[in-house]
Amino acid sequence: MKKSMTFFAAFFLIFTVASIFSGCSNKNSQPISDTQFALDTYCTISIYDNVPKKVLDEGFKAIKDVEDKMSVTIKNSEVNQINENAGIRPVKVSPDTFYVIKKAVHFSDVEKGYFDITVGPIVKLWNIGTDKAKVPSPEEIKAKLPLVNYKDIILDEKNMTIMLKNKGMSIDLGGIAKGYAADKVAQVLKKEGVKHAIINLGGDVLTIGTKPDGGNWRIGIQTPFKPRGEYLGIVEVSNKAVVTSGVYERYFKKDGKLYHHILNPFTGYPVDNHLYSVTIITDTSIDGDALSKIFVIGLEEGLKLAESLPGVQAIFVTDDKKVYITSGLKGNFKVTDPEYTLMTK
């Protein structure tokens, strides 16, 4: 995959959610672990079971397989084939790619269009996270906005084909593919008998089982704009995904203004709603990845939506350093940074 992101920007992503492993009483709880660059970020798999290293290797193969099929920077990927044939013909894809795009369409409905994988033409205009990042002109954005509409994705499950209705449209799975990759890694590891593990794909954290001593994993939520690994609070989970989207992950500054990578598909501009980050806690990483784009909806409506979804919890961090949580996290989320305040209703 082309490393379009700068080293430091990509490296920073791995600490968007910092995993805290302290407190394991099992003396044999030191993991076998590896970190590799894939899906435009640094991916770490840590296994706390006595398994051969080949299990780690199989986990990274699963990530690479997702990347080869779904990356927009790999010329012959299935997603690029869909994009190149937009408005021309349907493209036959693998069950993996079909599943992810079908899921993306579902979550676009859930999030009322604020999550939209057809935002590709706008992503390319901004190029945030690359050395070509720039502020597009209003005319450029206006010209591309009509190409953004997830309802123009034509799914044919019988023939396993996908087509974009109009020429110039393009899909970008950056908001959901990492989540799916984490789930695929978990499947591989569980098949090999792994019962205790952490999968961290650039801040998409997925836990398998509990810590070796039977306790919950303690996951730190990254403090916005502070050095990697500094966390504002801790949540305890087992067998859960913890996924964060934040304005501090990828951004650039122009004339003193910060432009981040979370784009509003209706306006074509980075979201400006006084949120720093949104963290989703759910059973699967693909769901957490897609739902973390509740960020775009904003605090009040985003909280309402998160509360309405079964099996979903959320943490909202605002730019005035206040933290709001869904009701299911009461008693299970602790703010540890004195600069931040947990708000209660």
Automatic annotation (TrEMBL):
GO terms for cellular component: plasma membrane. The keyword Transport does not apply. Its main location: membrane. The keyword Phosphoprotein does not apply. This is FAD:protein FMN transferase. One of its GO terms (molecular function) is metal ion binding. Belongs to the ApbE family. Keywords: Cell inner membrane, Cell membrane, FAD, Flavoprotein, Lipoprotein, Magnesium, Membrane, Metal-binding, Signal, Transferase. Magnesium. Can also use manganese. Residues 1-20 form the signal peptide.
